[in-house]
Specification:
Distance between the termini: 6 Å
Mean pLDDT: 95
Order of helices and strands: EHHHEHEHEHEHEHEEEHEH
Number of domains: 1
Number of helices: 10
Largest sheet: 8 strands, parallel
Length: about 280
């Protein structure tokens, strides 16, 4: 897009579940149903996404602990699928999510063990030659810092995106200022938010980011709150509502904009069209 704005893709997890009756952890699809993973990537490309995620968000040893899947196999397959689908049309993102337990002293996970888990996942992904490593949906800045430590040895651009509650802090109590201050000495190329909030609730946080940092900003809100209807996930906001509110983030100088849970290629295409109409 124009004016330094890059269009991201939308949700991977909820979008893949839309395509499959088998509601398993979506990283499994890289090996069990690669067709729908490739199909979704192509749909985001056709919608105009300039950065597309490989399906690696929770593809780590902790998530696979009680399965026969191997991190390297799952992550390598995800990278291959993304590169094959993109075929040079967009940059590839290695997506890294938080671990499903808390670090000490709030939980039992040590920083050393967390580092080993992130290092295995990120190293497997880095071998697949992504253009960006995206840490997303983190709620604990200390865990984010461990993941960044594992990522920075690969010399790739690192994006950091936190997930905030309605009170403007993460579940672990981190504010926007806390996040910016904690990452100021790390080689981070962009910061921002994703998940949890719809675009209307997330907009004030982007204004806070603008006031706290000169780094490029990331905006990937949800399509509102989710619910179940007829066995299907239904989101609070339709495409028009999501797009109308999301584009207001441009007032905070957002550089990377897309969607998270509940958004699919239809949302991203409409977001692209609106941004183009506005001259971005």
């Amino acid at each position: 897009m124009k004016n330094g704005v890059t269009l991201l893709d939308g949700a991977i997890g909820t979008s893949l579940w839309e395509k499959s009756e088998d509601k398993v952890p979506v990283w499994q699809y890289n090996l069990t149903n690669p067709k729908i993973v490739r199909e979704l990537c192509l749909e985001y490309l056709d919608a105009g996404a300039e950065l597309v995620q490989a399906n690696t968000f929770s593809a780590n040893a902790m998530s696979m602990k009680k399965t026969n899947f191997k991190v390297n196999e799952v992550v390598s397959a995800a990278m291959e699928i993304a590169h094959e689908a993109a075929d040079g049309r967009a940059k590839i993102v290695l997506s890294v999510g938080p671990l499903p337990v808390l670090l000490e002293p709030y939980g039992d996970l040590t920083e050393e063990d967390a580092f080993e888990i992130f290092d295995e996942q990120i190293s497997a992904g880095a071998a697949g030659k992504p253009d960006v490593i995206l840490m997303e949906t983190f709620i604990d800045i200390e865990m984010m810092k461990v993941a960044v430590r594992a990522a920075k040895k690969h010399g790739l651009p690192i994006f950091c995106s936190m997930s905030y509650g309605g009170g403007g802090r993460t579940i672990m109590g981190n504010s926007v200022r806390d996040v910016v201050d904690a990452l100021k000495d790390e080689p981070v190329a962009a910061v921002g938010l994703n998940c949890s909030l719809g675009p209307d609730e997330a907009l004030p946080l982007m204004a806070q980011y603008k006031a706290c940092t000169d780094l490029p900003l990331i905006f990937k809100p949800n399509a509102g709150k989710s619910g179940m209807s007829g066995g299907q996930i239904k989101m609070q906001f339709d495409v028009e509502h999501f797009v109308t509110h999301s584009v207001k983030a441009m007032e905070s100088g957002v550089s990377y904009i897309g969607g998270c849970c509940g958004t699919n290629p239809t949302y991203i295409r409409a977001l692209r069209d609106k941004l183009t109409e506005l001259g971005y």
